């Protein structure tokens, strides 16, 4: 899954990445959390626009706001689930990111007591700890996460644009840290993904595959 990511790029880098003729208006953010507003590039009324949406998807027909419950969506079942079917067909988007984060349980040797033993040494034990890892592109360019969005309408008529990041099975590098990873689209596939006229499951599903392992690098954060 993807539960934290970063967008440290400035506006000019985003304009260069998407060829947008206007200022997206986003400040660099070191760590983005579920339910935060996120920068989304989407096709709306035949125009590609940069806008902000709430990270945490709620379908338009839902009676309640689902908040952070749907920050991710499994790419393999988008056309099967009523929750995402319409958005997969008509409301797809991209989310730029400089990095994303995962946590892995690891055995660590920790000091169990500050009292030295007969040899003047403290006792250590193995303990499970969560280690945070940072995933970046090896070429330092931006990730472009695939997403789906919808506009949820509250009982009082308030409208809220919401988005989920798509996930897929991991490549062999990411699999060492988690059983899922974000879907990251290559630049040559951006236009197809954003094209509102394309709603063929067959044409879209082949895009939703793990990125080549050679394109990512991982650091302990």
Q: How would you describe what is shown here?
A:
- By secondary structure, this protein is mainly β.
- It folds into two domains: 185 residues, Alpha-Beta Complex (hypothetical protein yedk fold), CATH 3.90.1680.10; 29 residues, no CATH class.
- The protein is 12% helix and 40% strand.
- It is built from four helices and twelve strands.
- The strands form two sheets. Strands 2-1-7-8-12 form a five-stranded antiparallel beta sheet, with no helix packed on it. Strands 3-4-10-9-6 form a five-stranded mixed beta barrel.
- A hairpin with a 5-residue loop joins strand 9 and strand 10.
- The longest helix is centred in the middle third of the chain and has 9 residues.
- It is globular, with a radius of gyration of 20 Å.
- The two termini are 17 Å apart.
- The model has no long low-confidence stretch (mean pLDDT 89).
